[in-house]
Amino acid sequence: MKKSVFIGALTAATLAAGVAGAATLDDVKARGELICGVNTGLVGFAAPDANGNWSGFDVAICQAVAGAVLGDPSKVKYVPTSGQTRFTALGSGEVDLLARNTTWTFSRDTDLKLQFTATNYYDGQGFMVRKDSGVTSAKELDGASICIQTGTTTELNLADYFKANNMSYQPITVDSNAEGEQQFLAGACDAYTTDASGLAATRAAFANPSDYVILPEIISKEPLAPAVRQGDDQWTDIVRWTVYALIAAEEYGVTSANIDELAKSTDNPEIKRLLGVEGDLGAMVGLDKDWAVNAIKANGNYGEIFAATIGEQTPIGLARGLNAQWTQGGLMYAPPFR
Amino acid sequence: MSDTHAQTVAYVRETMLPQQAAPTGQSGVIKWLRENLFSGWVNTLLTLAGLYVAYSFVMHFYPWFAHGVWDANSLKECRAIITDRYGAGATGACWAMIHERWHQFLFGFYPSELYWRPVLTFALLFVAVGPLMFQWVPKKVVWFTLVFPFLAVWLLWGGSVWAPLLVLAGFVLGWIVFSFVGKFGPIAGFSAGAIVTILYFLLAVGPLIDLFHSIIPLGIEHVDSAKFGGFLLAITLGVGGIAMSLPAGIILALGRQSDMPLVKGLSIIFIEFIRGVPLITLLFVASLLLNYFLPPGTNFDIILRVMILVTMFAAAYIAEVIRGGLAALPRGQYEAADALGLDYWKAQRLVILPQALKISIPGIVSTFIGMFKDTTLVVFVGLFDPLKGIPDFIRADFNWKGIYWEPFVFVGAIFFILNFAMSRYSMHLENRLQRDNH
Fold it and tell me: Which positions fall inside the Solute-binding protein family 3/N-terminal domain (chain A) (predicted)?
């Protein structure tokens, strides 16, 4: 069996060579399933429950895209990717879409040949310290020992920040978030640094959250965006505008609850175009008229997804902050649907 | 006679004294303690220091175990229960997480209604290895052993029943060709058998499976490799790797001893290359580099890729262990085999290998145990190993975020049981094969 699968795979490889380069949209439709690269487990963003069902902020993007393309948000196969394997998984065609809290950076966009679609979460790096240390600002961390995950952009940001502020620090490198928390709790380091979204969740899970404070400084820009392969513009457009559709839906007050009713009754031409009642935006990207309706129905609009997975009502308790609509002082701004 | 002593000795005792127990200081526990623990001031000091360390360990960890909570829905609830029962500041294990998620530690994302399939496979594994491991198992069972790999793959991954049957047919075909052509010499037979088998797999097996399946669609639900995780993954990789690496290792060891320069050279290059490269590098090759070599859209199963690389890795080590066994064999054994007129394969099969393998048993089992534990490294290529992959995603559920030691204890205990069993079996095997003549 082993041998045959191997040889079978080689045969399949030669056959597949012929169709390589075909549009991702056609592949996904033919397969009837979207293959989505997600995190192997990150609180609020992607986590399987006891029955193996995935949920979270990133997972909701996968489901929205599956809704837009296939009309069924459950038709997703989740491929957990580690920090090391995520870009290869995308580049080699193992996944169609990478929704894995990945920071949009220059070199990833250009050198790694990725196409970042639209920022769905603006994160930034922060610090957490023990309350009794008396530290109230990151500027007071000169000489501190800091727990930091290796091989991440946070490690580089930390070095940049301390250099720019002419301070020194002693890095205590850890392999994972769980290990970092353990080291920090055991007193191996004075401060723990990671993305602010992760810090909030970490602090909330401590036995005594009130003994720890998150410092106000955010020392880096971490725009997290779903990524696709470079060279398939149609697929890039589909993912990008699916994210925008979720954001726009919140702006126009379209929710998973009122969407059917709005589609019938609304007079707002923008909503009509978004929901496919007027015009035919879907056809321009090779999708059905009601692509956006299906995307929004998956888990609701951007605000609903945020509130259900990482918002203030959840234990993670993240405020909207930069991720509020532009009308509310945030950065979420969808271009017009016309 | 009796007069002799009457003059020389004033008193002769004529009755035996009853035996007395040794003095308390010279017997039993006290004697043992004095001899082994307090025989001098250095040993006394070391004993006391050791006792103190043991005491501190127990005092530190015992409460944590004793306060363990089995029934809760989140870490928060666990903490509340422990505080409730043992007062503020008490620490305790939150086994409730294991209680809720144990099935994911064992099976990963394998569909729960199909758990019987891996369990049945695991049970049948013992039947299959029975005739190889224990003498009291009827020898006929070995036929089941030969069929088991196909049965196991079919049970675990599911799919059409024709796939394993037709693949098995391929091997039978190869064997028939081998035994026919083998009359003209073993090399010719082996080559012809291999070529026919490979051609069959390349050209015939895929269409045949489709054909048979379209005529009689028999099969069980297919389970994707992505659903494998936890100990199901570790044991699948471990058993597959062990089963394939032992023969591969033997061939490599013989190849390295060979007189043919090409065979010898290739064996040495393979062994030294694999031993010179860390396993993680090979795993990354399996998961990442192969993706670039193979055309996009190729679905070359990740578990199979990893299993092949793990097998290659273990085979190189096994080869060196067996080479040690071959080298330990007295020269006379080789010469005796030659003197009996045995050809190379018969000499190896009947005289050399049985002895060399027996000598190598501890080393081989060590390599197997090491390899089984190394399967946890697959976490780095995005597979859910039981030690880190599974706990990491469980921690991603906010209910269990912040839990740290419990999964390590649980998974460590299971690994210990499996590895200790392997180690005991190897000692049993050594005893059984004990001969006194050399």
Answer: 33-262
